[in-house]
């Protein structure tokens, strides 16, 4: 007679694994976003908005910085913006954070804001007008504070993603694989255009029948369904620590496309 199902225990922590993208590449791209953004910000503040003879004059007192022709300053800003945008598009697609559910913690956005802060701080000493210097310094301070908050969120997200990757690799390499029956499927969270389901499944082990809960990131068409099956890896020493994956041989939910829709933007 099989033993009754036991409630799942809290999984044991998994040590932090290395980042999926090399830090040399990541650091280079961060520099290619941050430094051009800083130069562009400095050029706009110190020349296009401050020089006495420029078209977009905002600070009449001007600055102590060497003068640049309006065309030169504009070209410098345009070139830096293009370079920063190209590097940002590559940076945000690195596998270190490519599936981050936190859109506000995008590393490219962090680097741009950090560059704006650096550019504003660098431009501040050259302003003759104390009010102009205070305004530019305040811009740098605001961007710097927002950058610090977003970097903290990004760091936590990257660490969590690295831990999940390390845990997946450990369970696939050393865990026991079984086919588990799906008992419940909770309303999913969304990562981009893919749902992350919370699946409760029943499986058999040498110690009896167990029930565990795990997450499954998959396409809507491959959504798990109650009565179907999933592939499940569990740790023999901690059978509550499980990894759930799609079972190619399982029945599918014919109403998945209608049942699960990504949240509307805006």
Automatic annotation (TrEMBL):
It comes from Streptomyces chisholmiae. The keyword Transmembrane helix applies. Keywords: Membrane, Transmembrane, Transmembrane helix. This is DUF3592 domain-containing protein. The chain crosses the membrane at residues 21-48, 68-91, 111-128, 134-155.
């Amino acid at each position: 007679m099989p033993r009754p199902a036991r409630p799942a225990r809290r999984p044991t922590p998994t040590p932090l694994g290395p980042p999926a993208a090399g830090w040399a590449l990541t650091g280079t791209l961060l520099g290619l976003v941050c430094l051009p953004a800083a130069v562009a910000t400095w050029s706009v503040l110190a020349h296009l908005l401050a020089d006495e003879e420029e078209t977009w004059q905002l600070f009449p007192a001007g600055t102590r910085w060497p003068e640049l022709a309006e065309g030169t300053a504009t070209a410098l800003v345009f070139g830096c913006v293009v370079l920063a945008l190209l590097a940002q598009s590559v940076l945000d697609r690195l596998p270190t954070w490519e599936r981050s559910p936190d859109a506000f913690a995008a590393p490219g956005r962090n680097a741009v804001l950090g560059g704006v802060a650096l550019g504003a701080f660098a431009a501040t000493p050259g302003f003759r007008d104390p009010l102009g210097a205070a305004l530019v310094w305040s811009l740098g301070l605001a961007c710097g504070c927002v950058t610090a908050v977003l970097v903290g969120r990004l760091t936590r997200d990257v660490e969590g993603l690295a831990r999940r990757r390390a845990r997946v690799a450990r369970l696939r390499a050393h865990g026991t694989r079984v086919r588990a029956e799906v008992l419940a499927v909770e309303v999913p969270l969304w990562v981009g255009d893919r749902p992350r389901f919370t699946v409760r499944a029943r499986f058999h082990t040498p110690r009896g029948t167990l029930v565990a809960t795990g997450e499954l990131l998959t396409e809507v068409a491959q959504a798990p369904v109650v009565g179907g099956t999933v592939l499940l890896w569990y740790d023999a020493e901690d059978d509550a620590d499980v990894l759930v994956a799609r079972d190619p041989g399982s029945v599918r939910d014919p109403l998945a496309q209608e049942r699960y829709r990504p949240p509307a933007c805006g």
